């Protein structure tokens, strides 16, 4: 009797799965799914990027996959990305529900919040506040250059030694965003600061890795003690710490004299009165965590990628230093405006961002209405995955798509030019709101480091490995580096 019931249940489950995974009329093509798993077993979940490229060759620039019983449409190539994220921006501007990242953020804040009034108001507030605290101005330059002085001090103390730079660059990028949000920075040896940075790096790997996929596609397993529980626990730990900082701000703030982003948010809530929606404590904490997580990993991983290529392409490093020395001769420190006089340095930074592809699959989107793309019908609520790497490496968009070559961003006259296919932070209304800060950080930090130091591949470094570690934010594999002070520099 029991065996018959189990068999009946399996048959009903299989039938339900087959009904759920039947492709709608004129839906993008893709491989056939299997019960329970969908197409998960056809992907290398440690790094699905090569599999996505293979499937795009077979099924086209727009194809579909099933994650469990949930359909997803993968976007590949610049023409598709432009039509979806710019031409039909609102149709593709939603955020999906039911994923690990949704449950971490509760659908609040700015990154995973669905398209709508609350998201628009919080994004506008975040951008305005970043500008108020100096983005694009000298005050932000001073904040960034002040932070990089701590990195320089550490590197000077380590001159001639073989060191692992991963934590160091995470420290700097995290402290810059902390100073904007909290009004203060952490010492690099602060216990919680180091634990927080480690949590962010681990959560990035979990959320888009195999265990994140298990969480997203198999709800029955979510309460089991599997590795994705660590992501939930770590996020809650950081959240509690930030809640403590908010409580301190409430007790010490002077209304309408904001010291940082928290004070600005509290001012906004006070200005709106009792009914301050959509601005409230729940939204504030998630927005702060969004900025903290997004503002740390992307920048630090790009800097580590840059240093990796400086060490392995010494001609590029030397040419950057020559340009920096010529432009900054007699100046105590670099200014963001100096970028206009450094076409080669700008080309190198953009080429690093291209090959790093720090957000390989962007942040997943969702359709807000029934829509059409490249002749296919896509129903409302469909999961949309923009494969940004496919654009950054697209053969007909780049002179050297598969090589690290700054000439991808230089015209025949040696002037800096940014091709339309350069979209490392996505495009359209859901473009990463920290892009402006990241560009400023990358230029000021890398120019300052190259002016002072020579980066050398260490004797104990083994063979360079350029293959990335896949995650929500993609990172270079851990490596060691040796730094030497450049001769004749005293500032």
UniProtKB/TrEMBL annotation:
InterPro entries: Cyt_P450, Cyt_P450_CS, Cyt_P450_E_grp-I, Cyt_P450_sf, Cytochrome_P450_fam2. Residues 1-21 form the signal peptide. One of its GO terms (biological process) is organic acid metabolic process. Keywords: Heme, Iron, Membrane, Metal-binding, Monooxygenase, Oxidoreductase, Signal. Its cofactor is heme. Its main location: membrane. It is found in: Membrane. GO terms for cellular component: cytoplasm; membrane. One of its GO terms (molecular function) is oxidoreductase activity, acting on paired donors, with incorporation or reduction of molecular oxygen, reduced flavin or flavoprotein as one donor, and incorporation of one atom of oxygen. The keyword Protein transport does not apply. The keyword Signal applies. Pfam families: p450. It comes from the Eukaryota. Heme binds at residue 432. Belongs to the cytochrome P450 family. PANTHER family: CYTOCHROME P450 2F2-RELATED, CYTOCHROME P450 508A4-RELATED. This is Cytochrome P450 2F2. The gene is LOC115813706.
């Amino acid at each position: 009797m029991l065996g018959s019931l189990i068999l009946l249940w399996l048959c009903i489950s299989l039938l339900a799965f087959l009904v759920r995974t039947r492709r709608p009329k004129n839906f993008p093509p893709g491989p056939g799914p299997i019960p329970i798993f969908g197409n998960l077993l056809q992907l290398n979940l440690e790094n699905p990027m090569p599999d996505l490229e293979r499937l795009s060759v077979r099924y086209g620039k727009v194809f579909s996959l099933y994650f469990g019983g949930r359909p997803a449409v993968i976007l590949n190539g610049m023409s598709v990305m432009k039509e979806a994220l710019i031409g039909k921006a609102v149709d593709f501007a939603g955020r999906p529900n039911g994923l690990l990242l949704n449950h971490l953020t509760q659908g609040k804040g700015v990154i995973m919040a669905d398209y709508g009034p609350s998201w628009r108001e919080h994004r506008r507030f975040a951008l305005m506040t970043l500008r108020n605290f100096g983005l694009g101005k000298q005050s932000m330059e001073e904040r960034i250059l002040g932070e990089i002085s701590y990195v320089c001090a550490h590197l000077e103390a380590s001159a001639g030694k073989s060191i692992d730079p991963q934590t160091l660059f995470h420290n700097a990028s995290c402290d810059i965003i902390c100073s904007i949000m909290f009004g203060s920075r952490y010492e690099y040896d602060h216990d919680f600061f180091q634990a927080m940075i480690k949590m962010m790096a681990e959560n990035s790997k979990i959320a888009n890795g195999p265990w994140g996929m298990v969480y997203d596609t198999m709800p029955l397993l979510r309460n089991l003690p599997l590795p994705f529980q660590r992501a939930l626990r770590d996020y809650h730990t950081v959240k509690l710490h930030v809640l403590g900082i908010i409580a301190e701000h409430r007790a010490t703030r002077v209304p309408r004299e904001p010291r940082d982003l928290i004070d600005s948010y509290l001012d906004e809530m006070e200005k709106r009165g009792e009914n301050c929606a959509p601005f409230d404590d729940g939204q504030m904490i998630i927005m702060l965590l969004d900025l903290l997580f997004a503002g740390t990993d992307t920048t630090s991983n790009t800097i580590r990628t840059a240093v990796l290529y400086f060490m392995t392409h010494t001609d590029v490093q030397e040419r950057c230093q020559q340009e920096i020395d010529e432009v900054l001769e007699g100046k105590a420190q670099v200014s963001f405006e100096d970028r206009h006089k450094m076409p080669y340095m700008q080309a190198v930074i953009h080429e690093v961002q291209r090959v790093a592809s720090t957000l390989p699959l962007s942040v997943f989107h969702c359709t807000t209405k029934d829509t059409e793309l490249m002749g296919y019908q896509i129903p409302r609520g469909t999961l949309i995955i923009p494969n940004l790497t496919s654009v950054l490496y697209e053969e007909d968009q780049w002179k050297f798509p598969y090589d690290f070559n700054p000439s991808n961003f230089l015209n025949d006259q040696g002037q800096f030019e940014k091709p339309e296919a350069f979209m490392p932070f996505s495009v359209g209304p859901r473009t990463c709101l920290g892009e402006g800060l990241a560009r400023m950080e990358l230029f000021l930090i890398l120019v300052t480091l190259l002016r002072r130091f020579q980066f050398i591949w260490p004797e104990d470094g083994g063979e360079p490995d350029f293959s990335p570690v896949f995650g929500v934010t993609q990172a270079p594999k851990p490596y060691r580096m040796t730094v030497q002070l450049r001769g004749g520099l005293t500032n």
